[in-house]
Write a structure and sequence with these properties.
The chain is an alpha+beta fold. It is built from 3 helices and 8 strands; from the N terminus they run H-E-H-E-E-E-E-E-E-H-E.
């Protein structure tokens, strides 16, 4: 049993990037699906596929690299709110990652979204992770 599935997801992606893998498989859950969709919409991953035919389900994530230099599109994945210490922010104190170049993924009352989307909707929530 995994105590922090989001940290496990981020670690699997981070390790696959460092090993220059093209695809990484992650056990599926609702929040991991939402994280994957946000990464794709923000342009940090190339593609993804949800496979529900196995019992726990699997998310296949195709990582994105620069075509010439082979450098990953994701520089840093950092878990912020942990099971032992949750980090909540209000609508007036939303985080900025790399002065607006990165994103913070948040869990709000209206679903999982980026800090930029939360700012547009003027809502706060739990800061899950920073991606740059």
């Amino acid at each position: 049993m995994n105590t922090d599935p989001i940290a496990d997801y981020l670690t699997r992606v981070r390790n696959a990037m460092k090993a220059n893998h093209r695809v990484v498989e992650v056990p599926s859950s609702k929040i991991k699906k939402e994280l994957t969709k946000i990464l794709f919409q923000s342009g940090y991953i190339l593609n993804y596929k949800f496979e529900e035919d196995t019992k726990p389900g699997v998310i296949k994530v195709a990582l994105k690299y620069h075509p010439v230099t082979k450098i990953s599109a994701i520089n840093k994945l950092e878990r912020i709110s942990k099971p032992g210490l949750r980090r909540y922010v209000g609508a007036d104190e939303l985080p900025r990652v790399l002065n607006g170049l990165g994103i913070a993924i948040m869990s709000t009352s209206q679903g999982v979204m980026t800090n930029k989307e939360a700012n547009k909707r003027n809502i706060g929530g739990e800061v899950l992770c920073y991606i740059s």
